[in-house]
Amino acid sequence: MKKDLISITDYSKEEYLRIMELAADFEQNPNQKLLEGKVVASLFFEPSTRTRLSFETAINRLGGRIIGFSDSNSSSVTKGETLHDTIRMVSNYADLIVMRHPLEGSARYASEVSSVPIINAGDGANQHPTQTLLDMYSIMKTQGRLDNINIFMVGDLKYGRTVHSLLMALSQFENPIFNFIAPDELQMPEEYKIYLREKGIRFFEHREFTDIISEADIVYMTRVQKERFSDPIEYEQVKNVYILRNSMLANTKPNMRILHPLPRVNEIHTDVDKNEKAYYFDQALNGVFAREAIIAHTLSLK
Amino acid sequence: MSDKIKKKLKLKVSAISEGTVIDHIPSENLFKVISILELDKTTNMITFGANLDSEQQGSKAIIKVSNQFFANDDINRIALIAPNAKLNIIRDYEVVEKKVVEVPDQVIGIVKCFNPKCITNNEDVLTSFKVTSKSPLALKCKYCEKITHQHQMVIK
Ligand SMILES: [Zn+2]
């Protein structure tokens, strides 16, 4: 059976650990010609330069060939071709399909239509599992473990798919502690809190972003986006409340690291960038190793 | 109720010798039930009545299908639109078995996903849901992973 990666919950705990192990191996030795003679389709139905370059770097380092498009304007999609037909055609050409699409559930549907594995590089606001795996790899690298992590998630916890997926993934490990810091309009959805309660996992909710982060192993920052607010005045009130500044890091633990899926707007002040606890730029580089690992795992190359 | 009235009520929909009687269908969903059970494609004799008086639900519909019997999985597909439906299995004019419908664990087709950005609302994809709660109903879309709640449910 082909192994797709559509949602973060498609992987077991063992598979998460396997990806961590493979990513570490690719970090040591990034150029391994495991995809020699193979064709990978990179189908970006909506542009995302950051994610696409990360994937295409991973494919190149593995020695694979790339076909595809970087936005739907340069593809048959503009001629009205259905996703079904595009995937049927491309799965005849390629050994693996990496796809990003604005519609939610598009990747799951593609995996049913395709004869080759699909890796979801983002389906609308739904899932972006490779981001989560690179987040996990960043936690593993900086903390040396995925168990017993005290994580503070800050900003847009309502619509932020990266925090939802990371919550689901870390919940598979021993004794995580979740701390949520968000404005009223952007609280962690009830379904995730129910999930944590059912699993007996501790979580705390905060409105204010202060030195409570002194307990944190990881501070995971997200963007608070203007378009999420029904009332623009409300956005103006909160947009400057959830900003991380260097002065707030004085009492934090030495092992603490700051993650952010990038790009940032103003939620991390630039005065944090020089602090050794700022990890978000390294986190982006980890994406290439994590994606090499995911591709190798998906095609059972290692 | 007098015997005469009882007899009159019985005659509203004629009796069958072998087959299934589906009773207590909300009148407004009669044709949806017919379509879900694909009774519009059968060659068996069907009679149905709608807007009949019902003590339980005001106005009900009833379907009688001759020589046809339904598997539980098939009949449970109507649970979303006819939750109180009752089935009488008829053999030689006698009711030999009674069944009630039950909300299944999985719903395929029938319901639309409430999420306008879901692939199932943008391309010709059969919907598929995992039932996460039976009362009140909550259906988790296999594709976009969002939950459609009872008050958001639209029957296709
Ligand atoms: Zn859906």
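^ zinc ion complex. Chain B has two domains: 3-100, 106-155. Residues A 105; B 113, 115, 118, 120, 141, 143-144, 146 surround zinc ion (CB under 6 Å).
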